Description:
The chain is an alpha/beta fold. It folds into 2 domains: about 90-310, ANL, N-terminal domain (Rossmann fold, 3-Layer(aba) Sandwich), CATH 3.40.50; about 315-410, ANL, C-terminal domain (GMP Synthetase, Chain A, domain 3). It has helices at about 5-15, 20, 25-30, 40-45, 50-55, 90-105, 125-135, 150-160, 170-180, 200-210, 325-335, 365-385, and strands spanning about 70-75, 85-90, 115, 140-145, 165, 190-195, 215-220, 225-230, 240, 245-250, 265-270, 280-290, 290, 305, 310, 315-320, 320-325, 345-350, 355-360, 390-395, 410. The chain has a 9-stranded mixed beta sheet, with helices on both faces. Strands 10-11-12-15 form a 4-stranded antiparallel beta sheet, with no helix packed on it. Strand 6, helix 10 (about 200-210) and strand 7 form a beta-alpha-beta unit. Helix 9 (about 170-180) crosses helix 10. The longest helix has 19 residues, at about 365-385. The model has no long low-confidence stretch (mean pLDDT about 90). Monomer. GO terms for molecular function: nucleotide binding; phenylacetate-CoA ligase activity. Keywords: Ligase, Nucleotide-binding, Phosphopantetheine, Phosphoprotein. It comes from Senegalimassilia anaerobia.
Amino acid sequence: MQMKPEQLEIIKEQFKTLKDRSAFYARKFKDIDLSDVQTQEDFEKLPFSEKADLREAYPLGLQAVPDEKIIRIHSSSGTTGTPVVIPYTQKDVDDWATMFARCYETAGITNTDRIQITPGYGLWTAGIGFQLGCERLGAMAIPMGPGNTEKQLQMMQDLRSTVITGTSSYALLLAEEIEKRGLRDKLYLRKGVIGSERWGEKMRQRIANELGIEIFDIYGLTEIYGPGIGISCEEHHGMHIWEDYVYCEIVDPKTGEQLPDGEVGELVLTTLRKEGAPLIRYRTHDLTRIIPGDCKCKFGSHHPRIDILTGRTDDMVKVKGCNMFPSQIEEVLQFTDGASSEYQVMIEAINGRDVLTVLFETPLEGEERERCEQQLAAIFKAKIGCTPEAKGVPMGELPRSEKKSKRIFDSRY
């Protein structure tokens, strides 16, 4: 992707004092004179930052300003390994609020909306980010947090919420409960802002149809502010990334080489204005592509689009000699008549060989279910390269999550 002249100038200005402000970058770039970075090509020679680097800096080794300028910390939501702690200045929080409000505006949400916020609060950046943007926009925030579905539905009705925010897993759980209780006609929902996990087209359509809303994908990660650095627009063709705050690259996950716009690779992000913990060439492990050309929406020529995430470099599972990503399984479901959006994959080692089972929800029964299972197994073989044992289960049988759903269970190791 071509770096804009103003982005390069911001980076060069930042580099003048980066080593003095940040012990982390003083070590990382100890053999590099940052004043030599004068072009995009120079910038692309700098080493990447990895999550492992950030974990080694625990707890506050990433801090690039004096203590008195730090007003908040957040931490990654991962449940394994040393957490990544990100310090924020007041300017960082203000910038994040500005970006998030812009996300809401891009989705056609205004200060007359009532936004029900179901992501979690606390160290995680989700709930508080959705609220920050809501307050900056001037809309009514209904800060529910996750869980307590009974209360969620009561507030949704009584306070006439017009926007629902959350993970796709929890949005589906709410949609199913609303359908089951026949509440749709009693609601005022019109938009959904969904993020934090990748999800397939069937799941997207189920949520949109059952809630009667227009859905927007929001993007972000704790290391780079949190959710709100990008969102899909009314065209629903990729997510705009706010280029006045973040610079994007797409690289080959194996070689680290730049890929041309349109090719799928790993998203690498650089913060342009972050004070508390600036990040230079941070490997997100998210797989996507830069969508070439301008979008037809009002942000079309100013903010580049990345495609909906196809997965993560660390999502891949190898079974029976085949590489498999969750996005491929979701594509199989999309092409299988009668299969719903919810699935689980079980991988076991039995008598020295891999056994792959795909559980999926379907409303079909008897012979129709058997035909659906056979069709899914055949499409799986054609698209991914190996044949699973496909088992259809009744709708609602697979577990639902109030946060992110775990779908692949590998017991071989």
